# Entry
Amino acid sequence: TGTYWLVCSDNSDDGELYVFKSSDGIAWTASSTTGTALATNAEVHWDGTYAYVCVDNGLYRSSDGVSWGYLNGFNGTLGLASGNGVLVGVGFDSGSPYSTISTSSDSGATANHYTPVSSQNITTVTGICFDGTRFIAISGNSDGAGASILSSIAGADFTEIAVLTSFDTTATVNKIAYSDGVYIATSSNGAYAISEDAETWIEYLESGYAFRTVGDGDG
# Structure
């Protein structure tokens, strides 16, 4: 959109969430949300109509980057993606009615909640992207050996398509991104992985040397 975004919280005062936007990265305009928000995992997403800021305690939405409204139903959101007519948030499993996947077809005004299907007991999904056809997500904590890569067309009913065994599953900061036909996943332990189809991955350690290849595809 030609806009840079910066999110932070005033922890020394009342924890109010501040959002800064800039068209050139030099001059910045500040706005703030109502209420307080922890912003240790803040992320900004633009869906073509609204700007969203997801933080530890929920989701905020704005049409102009100045006035922000809180959206109930996205508690613990760590990442957002939009496509195929839906907004999808991932984050903590906060208990009923919240799950690790939240979807909305009305720009976040209402939300449905899901738990992904995988070979591991996933407690957190921490990153998500949209590749133009499907949503691809990555798990954080699980009881298995690695992070699950999950896929869904509609943004719900995610299924596991790969497992990154070198990734940290003790911290909830595994992330994933997509651009120009390439998926990149990162982990808190310094490992990262690259794929062309989200199913076959080449995993790298912090040193940059290839660790192993997982999956059955041609990536």
Notes: The chain is about 0% helix and 45% strand. The chain has a mean pLDDT of 79. The two ends are 31 Å apart (CA to CA).
